[in-house]
Design brief:
Blueprint (H helix, E strand, L loop, with lengths): L14 H5 L5 H11 L3 H19 L8
Length: 65
């Protein structure tokens, strides 16, 4: 792993797990470091976090037709 966050590959595939706090500590640090330097991944993170928050508001009745 590189010490320079700009050298890290994009972390989009890890964002869902990051939002759910399902990454190991090393991956969590990698994602957090990358998000500080990548506007594109940060925008994607916000979208994933918002979607996760909205899903948490759903109740079983909301899923029935």
């Amino acid at each position: 792993m590189s010490a320079d966050p700009g050298d890290d590959p994009h972390v989009r595939p890890l964002l869902g797990a990051y939002v759910l706090d399902a990454l190991d500590p090393e991956e969590t640090c990698r994602v957090a470091r990358h998000l500080r330097s990548c506007d594109g991944c940060t925008r994607d993170y916000v979208e994933v976090a918002e979607a996760s928050a909205l899903l948490a508001l759903l109740q079983a009745e909301d899923l029935r037709e």
